[in-house]
Structures are given as structure tokens and as C-alpha cells.
């Protein structure tokens, strides 16, 4: 079984701007990031080009990462996150440089100072046997699957990306990604975006994927093993090109998985109506040969455990949840983990919208059931700032969804869904915080909406659901 907690795998407001980082003494506007030891504000990333070779026989990974970035202040060293793997060579703009690794950090001395605004390229050769990283939410990141454990998966939310590649591990540092993954012939590799090339060389096969993103490091995904594949282009409306839909699963689960995932195209079309145009070029799901406590939302490529496939669509609400994350969580991303209700509250509300779309329980019925369940529990959590160790508390999910339903009831359907579509359209590909959402909703409301949102997001007592507009 994969050793990850449910909350770590699937499952505010920052009234202050972004926080400080420890890197080189660089300070961003405030010093209250939830995980200040991860990431740096000294640079931002433009692209990652990852060349990876995985040997399932000894569970070893050899990597070459080419990272293109821009200095956001004068730099004499470059800081990246990399854990449990050893960097053995590094170059900055083609010049070999000295490296130092300590406490999950990789430091590279620049051959000469880099001025603010300078574009630079880092090449890092690294290797090792990747393993999950310890976190407040249990082990996360790279892990092995199957029997005899010859497959792999990545479940990085929120801090697991450095378990398999060097990165600037901030949720708001988004970049383009290319993956070139070599595995033994007969094994498959799956990653974000679209498959550009599959080429055999001797006893190995290289799978190349590209995703223009932009994508945060924790949403980057890689799965290796043996899979059955299927998928077709999905047309989401009269305008725009169809998106590539591709699913993969163990052969023994193929019949059940095809049935359980069959309504993905309908979900993509329904959510495009609710939320606006689908933001990426592809989507798909991977079912891994392992039991997962919960699915994972990785950008363009959600992952489900074998235990989520029952042939009866018993977990279909989670299929909807992960698809909704492509809009909220992936395309519109967090500035800091304190704002996670903007991911999980929105995706949980999408579960209720899917039920409503099917003509089953309405979102209003589900919200009121959820409200009564919350009311019976202790209310000691402000979901806009739940605290570092409680970002995956179920109340962040459910009260976040109730917050959106309260807003819908107060605004009316037309304004509410127009507001949601505009939220995505305005911030597509960008990073946001709760204060930005409160201001955005206020611009669409016909009467002051801030008191309602303040009570739901910043206060501990559970507010009543409003009756709505007549």
C-alpha cells in the first residue's frame, strides 16, 4: 500500500502578501509562508526539461535537469530543492560550478554574479534511489507500486516534488515542462501534457511528453509500469480544438476502469459550462497498481488507486473532484498553502454540481446535509488560514464548498456562475489568494458580500446558509 494519508493526497485568507524565504536572506513582503524552507523568491522558473532513466530492478533514477530561470534579485548562488538524491554535476550557463547539498537544499555558486532580470540556464546531473519524503502529512513524493514493486507513482502535494527532481518548490512558481523518460522495454512512462515521441533504443524505450503549463512543481507527475491505454479527442463545444483524453490502468482493471471513467467527457463539458473553457491541451487519469488513500490532482493527469475502481462508479464524485482541480488548483493556483480552500472548496463544490447536473441530489440539498454535519463538529478552524498542519482538514474542503454555496444563494445563479467563469478567465495560468477572490466576488455582487464571506472564511463559528434570492 502506498504510505500516504488521505489528506496529504487529495485533500486562507492571506490578507498579507507573500512571505519570506530563508534563501540568501531574501525577504518577500511578509514572513508568514506556511512552508518557508521550501522554495526561493530569488528567481522564478521559465521551464524544466527533465531527462530521466529509471531502472525498476534496483529502483534507481538517473536524471539530468535543465532549468531555465530569471533572477529576481542579484544572485551569487542559485538555490533549489532536492532531497534524498545526489547532484554530481552542475553548470550555470554552460560553466561548471560548485554544488552543496544540505537539509533538502541544493546550492550552486554562480561563476559570476547574475544581475536582476538576467535569464540563466542550470544543468544538473543527479542520481539515487528516490523515496517518499517525510512531511507533516506523512510520506509524500516518489513511491513504488505493484507486485513486485516494478512500477512507480508521484504524489507530491504539497512538498514532495524534490523527491525526484531539483526545483523551486513553491506553489506559485509555475513553468513549462518537458519529460524524457527511459524505462526498460515493455514498461511504460506517463507524464503531464501530451506524448510527443516514443522511441526504442536497445533494451529501453524513451517516452517524451511536453506540457506548456504553466505548472507548479508539486503538480508534475510521472508514472511507470505496465498499463493498458485508451482515449479519444473530446470536443467541448463549438469553439476551440478538441482536447486529448488519455486513460491508463493495469490490464486486470481495464473493464471496470473504462466504465468508472466513462463520464469524464461529460464532466469536462459540464464544468466548461460552469467554469469556462478547459485550460489545457490534454486530460487523463492513471490507475496505479496500488491502494491509495485518495486520488491525486496532478495537472492534466489525475491518479487513482486500484481501490477507487469498482466497476460501479462508486467513486465517481472523486473523478469529478479531480477534473475540477484542472480549473481551480492547477490553472488558477495558490500563492501560498494557507489559501488551499480555493483549491479544495471549489473541487468539493464541483462534486455537488455534478450530482445536480445528473439530476440526483441538488447542490442545495448536499450543502445543507454538509452544513448539519459541520454543525455537529467542533468549529475551531478558520478555513482561510487553517494553520500549516491542518491544510488538509476535511472542514477546509466541506466548509469551503458551503462557502461557495452560500455565495451562490446570496448572488443568484446567473451572477454566481458568471463570477466563477470570470474568476478563471481573469486568473488563468496565474496564482491567487483569498483576498483576491473576496474582491472579485464583491465586484459581481449587487449588494455588499464581504460580511458574508468574512464570516465563512475568517471566523470560527459556522454561519447559517442564506435562504437565497426569491
Question: Mean pLDDT across all residues, rounded?
Answer: 91
Work out the helicity level: 10-25%
As a whole number of angstroms, the C-alpha radius of gyration is: 22 Å
Indicate the multimeric state: single chain
CATH fold group of the largest domain: Immunoglobulin-like
CATH architecture of the largest domain: Sandwich
Tally of structural domains: 2
Strand order of the largest sheet: 5-4-8-2-1-11-14-13
User: Which class of secondary structure composition applies to the elements?
Assistant: alpha+beta
Within CATH, the superfamily of the largest domain carries the name: tricorn interacting facor f3 domain
Strand content: 25-35%
Number of DSSP E strands: 22
Number of helical regions: 10
The CATH class of the largest domain, by name, is: Mainly Beta
Largest sheet: 8 strands, mixed
- CA-to-CA gap between the ends? 51 Å
List the uncertain runs.
1-30
C-alpha geometry: globular
Amino acid at each position: 500500500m502506498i504510505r500516504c494519508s488521505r489528506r496529504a493526497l487529495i485533500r486562507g485568507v492571506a490578507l498579507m502578501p507573500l512571505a519570506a524565504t530563508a534563501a540568501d536572506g531574501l525577504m518577500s513582503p511578509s514572513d508568514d509562508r506556511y512552508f518557508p524552507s521550501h522554495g526561493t523568491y530569488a528567481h522564478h522558473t521559465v521551464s524544466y526539461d527533465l531527462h530521466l532513466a529509471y531502472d525498476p530492478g534496483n529502483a534507481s533514477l538517473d536524471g539530468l535537469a535543465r532549468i531555465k530561470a530569471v533572477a529576481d534579485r542579484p544572485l551569487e548562488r542559485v538555490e533549489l530543492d532536492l532531497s534524498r538524491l545526489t547532484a554530481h554535476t552542475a553548470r550555470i550557463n554552460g560553466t561548471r560550478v560548485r554544488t552543496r547539498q544540505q537539509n533538502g537544499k541544493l546550492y550552486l555558486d554562480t561563476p559570476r554574479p547574475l544581475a536582476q532580470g538576467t535569464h540563466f540556464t542550470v544543468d544538473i546531473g543527479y542520481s539515487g534511489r528516490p523515496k517518499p519524503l517525510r512531511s507533516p502529512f506523512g510520506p509524500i513524493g516518489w513511491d513504488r507500486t505493484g507486485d513486485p514493486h516494478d512500477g512507480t507513482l508521484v504524489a507530491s502535494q504539497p512538498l514532495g516534488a524534490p523527491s525526484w527532481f531539483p526545483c523551486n518548490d513553491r506553489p506559485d512558481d509555475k513553468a513549462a515542462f518537458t519529460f524524457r523518460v527511459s524505462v526498460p522495454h515493455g514498461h511504460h512512462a506517463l507524464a503531464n501534457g501530451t506524448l510527443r515521441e516514443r522511441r526504442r533504443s536497445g533494451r529501453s524505450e524513451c517516452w517524451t511528453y511536453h506540457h506548456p503549463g504553466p505548472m507548479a512543481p508539486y503538480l508534475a507527475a510521472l508514472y511507470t509500469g505496465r498499463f493498458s491505454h485508451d482515449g479519444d479527442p473530446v470536443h467541448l463545444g463549438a469553439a476551440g480544438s478538441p482536447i486529448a483524453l488519455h486513460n491508463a490502468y493495469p490490464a486486470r482493471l481495464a473493464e471496470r476502469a473504462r466504465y468508472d471513467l466513462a463520464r469524464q467527457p461529460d464532466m469536462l463539458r459540464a464544468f466548461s459550462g460552469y467554469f469556462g473553457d478547459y485550460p489545457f491541451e490534454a486530460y487523463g487519469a492513471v490507475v496505479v497498481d496500488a491502494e491509495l488513500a485518495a486520488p491525486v490532482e496532478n495537472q492534466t493527469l489525475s491518479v487513482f488507486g486500484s481501490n477507487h475502481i469498482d466497476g460501479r462508479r462508486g467513486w465517481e464524485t472523486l473523478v469529478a473532484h479531480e477534473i475540477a482541480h484542472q480549473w481551480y488548483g492547477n490553472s488558477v493556483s495558490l500563492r501560498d498553502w494557507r489559501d488551499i480552500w480555493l483549491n479544495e472548496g471549489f473541487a468539493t463544490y464541483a462534486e455537488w454540481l455534478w450530482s445536480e447536473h445528473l439530476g440526483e441530489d441538488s447542490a442545495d440539498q448536499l450543502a445543507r446535509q454538509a452544513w448539519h454535519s459541520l454543525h455537529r463538529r467542533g468549529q475551531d478552524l478558520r478555513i482561510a488560514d487553517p494553520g500549516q498542519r491542518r491544510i488538509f482538514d476535511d472542514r477546509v474542503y466541506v466548509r469551503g464548498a458551503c462557502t461557495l454555496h452560500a455565495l451562490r444563494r446570496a448572488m443568484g445563479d446567473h451572477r454566481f456562475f458568471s463570477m466563477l467563469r470570470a474568476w478563471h478567465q481573469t486568473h488563468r495560468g496565474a496564482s491567487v489568494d483569498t483576498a483576491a477572490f473576496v474582491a472579485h466576488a464583491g465586484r459581481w455582487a449587487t449588494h455588499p458580500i464581504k460580511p458574508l464571506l468574512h464570516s465563512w472564511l475568517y471566523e470560527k463559528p459556522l454561519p447559517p446558509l442564506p435562504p437565497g434570492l426569491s
